[in-house]
């Protein structure tokens, strides 16, 4: 940013200026089913055929496809019969709905919910609070009541949260040897993506997903196969209701949602019921100690401002919270991916 070249031609500023064009192009191609169609077709298709099959205008589709080529989400082939498009490997793997590693629901959640909240970032910074009320006209008093605007919305949000664990789940679960902990509670475990990673790596363990009643019911119905007896459910509110005794408590993307006093309340409650020798595994994205990066985590923290009540933290901030709640031998493991792991022992 400091070089003379940047000062004469501020390319980096232009990129930031239209950064959301890139996201919206990808979201729109996902939403219209471009990547699904090209995965199914197994042969490159022209823009006319794609527009016809997806029921869009040809002029709009052609521009969308060309921009996806620029974003390296599609490949273009020119031959004597015309111009044809096919998916890149990245799109087949992560953007087509049928892929086991698909991020489709995550993209749709960003497009339909997160994007609308970010429209009010200025208000969020001025007021220091999330923007659910402005964006959706729904009270954000009960944060997850606001996130789950309808059952349909809740299922999509749950798919979106779960998809990340098909990519990063193994790394955070393998960051520490969790085999001594056989009786595990995943607090706010949602659709169970991390619970499934856990029982696959530690087959002698059972994981109980503790979540709000409507979330636990949907997870049981839509996400966890009924024959999977190593994953159980506990319906409750972890702030108000008792938390049962266990060897290990997982808190994945929970502490970043809440202000420090609520995090402390929850951690102290867990410490009280945790078996001696047991522990708590915090899974979060970590800021550098001087908060100079990583950029992804910095913007996630702004996202917490716009959407939640908490923020992203440094490893020292999490470690201090764990120690203040009574946990000892706090260890931090960076995975090199988006999410890291912190283990505290009782
Ligand atoms: C940001 S999501 C994280 C989900 C999951 N741990 C993950 O990383 O994919 C927060 C989860 O906490 C649950 N939750 C929020 N408030 C809760 C409460 N008071 N008691 C129990 N669960 C709660 C939500 O329903 C949601 O499943």
From TrEMBL:
Active site: residue positions: 256 (proton acceptor)
Domain O-methyltransferase dimerisation: 15-96
Residues in O-methyltransferase C-terminal domain copies: 118-328
GO biological process, one term: melatonin biosynthetic process
Recorded superkingdom: Eukaryota
Biochemical pathway: Aromatic compound metabolism; melatonin biosynthesis; melatonin from serotonin: step 1/2
Pfam families tied to this protein: Dimerisation (PF08100), Methyltransf_2 (PF00891)
E.C. no: 2.1.1.4
GO molecular function, one term: acetylserotonin O-methyltransferase activity
Keywords: Melatonin biosynthesis, Methyltransferase, S-adenosyl-L-methionine, Transferase
Subunit-level organization: Homodimer.
Role according to the record: Catalyzes the transfer of a methyl group onto N-acetylserotonin, producing melatonin (N-acetyl-5-methoxytryptamine).
Protein's name in the database: Acetylserotonin O-methyltransferase
Lineage of origin: Eukaryota, Metazoa, Chordata, Craniata, Vertebrata
Gene label: ASMT
